[in-house]
Amino acid sequence: MEQTASPISISIDELDLAIRQGRFPYLLDVRRSPRYDEAADTIRGARRRDPEQMPQWQHGMPADAAVVVFCVYGHEVSQGVATGLLRLGYDVAYLAGGIEAWRAMGLPLGAKPPASPGIWVTRQRPKIDRIACPWLLRRFIDPDAQILYVPSEDVAATAKKLGGTAFDMPGAEYGHHGEYCSFDAFLSRHGLGSNPGLALLARIVRGADTGQLNLAPQAAGLLAVSLGLSEKFQDDDTMLTVAMPVYDALYAWCSRTVSELPQAAR
Predict the structure, then answer these.
(1) Which end of the chain, N or C, is surrounded by fewer C-beta atoms within 10 Å?
(2) Whole-angstrom Cα distance, residue 223 to residue 210?
(3) What would the pLDDT profile of 110-162 be if each residue is shown by its tens digit?
(4) Are 107 and 147 within one domain?
(5) What does pTM read for this prediction?
């Protein structure tokens, strides 16, 4: 009888490094329902998948995704899910020690994602903020967030009709406030400002988006790349897809840069 290879594990340090380097895995929280339901938080960027319902969702992931699954302590639940995904040909690992080991290391946790992916509505033809904010949403807040780009005059009505949230619009909670841009509003609202890499990225985004290029030397470069993407891609969804790895790379650079600074200079 042919035997399936056992799934490999990924350590807490390895997963933390992968995220800081902008190599965001397809992260699955597979804690059983009682433990998950009672919990207030999860690892940022994780999707919820019930291990008891694996036959219903196991085929719905990107075929080329690097998958990491975690449960409470990294024992039979996550290892069982990882074994099942391995049989289907996925590149998968389970998190050694689970979420409790992550918590014990003092690594960042965030609110659990909504039961249904959120709908976020903004103006069409994005440049900077309206690309940076969806990147932040999908990487750290709501990994399956739906982003809708519509004409400016239709944003409020579309958000209301679909039960979504308007962003980067005048008067929006997730909008410009004083000298700060919408990306700053997302960081503040979701408690992400303490992430040093994101804090540096926010300064670059703010500088590029508001014309304050003196805020960071990289702001002018981000502005140029963003305008170039807008010229190259007329379809907004395609532009967002192409820009996601650009922001992954910029976040990786920011994370490495701040890690090399003395604590007092961060």
Answers:
(1) N
(2) 10
(3) 999 998 999 999 999 999 999 999 999 999 999 999 999 999 999 999 999 99
(4) no
(5) 0.94
